[in-house]
Amino acid sequence: MTGRPLPRCADEELGFGTVITDHMLKIEWNVERGWNHPMILPSGPVGLHPFAHVFHYAVECYEGMKAYVDNNGSVRLFRPEMNMQRFRVSAKRMSLPDFDGEQLLKCIETLVDIDKDWIPKQRGYSMYLRPVIFSTTPWLGLTQCAEAMILVLCCPVGPYFKSGFVPIKLSVDSKYIRAWPGGTGNVKSGGNYGPTVISQAAATANGASQSLFVYDKHEYVTEAGTMNIFFLIRNEQGVKQLITPSLKDGTILPGVTRQSVIELSQQWNECETVEKMIPFAEIKAAFERGDVLEIFGTGTAAVIQPINGIVYEGKEYKPVVPFDDSMLQVRLTNFLIGVQYGDIDHPWSHVVPP
Ligand code: COI
């Protein structure tokens, strides 16, 4: 079970999300019988009825986690209990059945241990874990879920962006709205992601690689492509602040990396850490004063992604200082990577029992 089959490519050639490991976890649910026994199976197709709700009504949600190998060969996860908690919140919002997060984490640990030889060892590479739950209910009527399935898939990955840890550009998209109050922006449902693909073409046309999503006449900043977003600014009073959109209006995904950056920034206390509604005009004014010091995105896939420009109404706005290694975002990244790969002993790093 532990021998690695022929590698499909060298780790350095890994992009994001193309290689699947040997095994997957599958757990089926039925309204009458509840959850069935978890099964670890060879990765492969799952047969579903063509009426399955997930195909027609997008009744699904997912998680993103990563497994790392430390210098002693132990396998580590990063704050996995937060993923399990968010997965349950997302499932509830999507009217999918509840499950025991601790039990699911144990199943994931078993899967990761079986496929651990697939985990790339180099810094910047890891094994992405994709838990997904969806309604397999085989009726065309839009009804409560009667049948569902959880899959957990494993995928050795390199950097999410081909450029790696090199700043990217964003373009403000005022046309397509990613999320709005009362919607599902704060849960990890595929329905929040698929409809944003169209916006990437507009971003590319503006010379950017991702869109910065805003909503409402105030153009409140929400997310950057698939990531949460942070700005290090000096406010109008000259106070240095790390600001990020608040979770209060329900449009923002409560990212695990987002939360970790907030906690680290509060502990390091180099600036104020502020979660609030951010009208884009506030960022534009800060750009115009020369008060935007840093911008970065956070996410499980991307970890921290430097951003060095935002295109808005045909004009590019740039942080006042060029990207360099002394920046807060670089130090945050180094710390997070240190914890994730077990170089820094920290309670956020979870060792998978062999
Ligand atoms: C993640 O960062 O884990 C995500 O789920 C984003 C996805 C588009 C890869």
Helix content: 10-25%
Number of domains: 2
Describe the biggest sheet?
Answer: 9 strands, antiparallel
Question: pLDDT below 50 for ≥5 consecutive residues: which ranges?
Answer: 1-6
Distance between the termini: 14 Å
Describe the structure.
- The protein has 354 residues and is α+β, with helices and mostly antiparallel strands.
- The protein folds into 2 domains: 11-158, Aminotransferase class 4, branched-chain amino acid transferase, N-terminal domain (D-amino Acid Aminotransferase, Chain A, domain 1, 2-Layer Sandwich), CATH 3.30.470; 168-340, D-amino Acid Aminotransferase, subunit A, domain 2 (D-amino Acid Aminotransferase, Chain A, domain 2).
- 22% of the residues lie in helices and 30% in strands.
- It has 7 helices and 18 strands.
- The protein has helices spanning 53-57, 80-93, 101-114, 197-205, 256-268, 280-289, 328-340, and strands spanning 23-30, 34-35, 39-42, 60-62, 65-69, 75-78, 126-135, 147-157, 168-173, 210-215, 220-224, 228-234, 240-245, 272-276, 292-299, 303-312, 315-317, 349-351.
- Strands 1, 2, 3, 4, 5, 6, 7, 8 and 18 form a 9-stranded antiparallel β-sheet that branches.
- α2 (80-93) crosses α3 (101-114).
- The model is unreliable at 1-6 (pLDDT under 50).
- Bound molecules: 2-OXO-4-methylpentanoic acid.
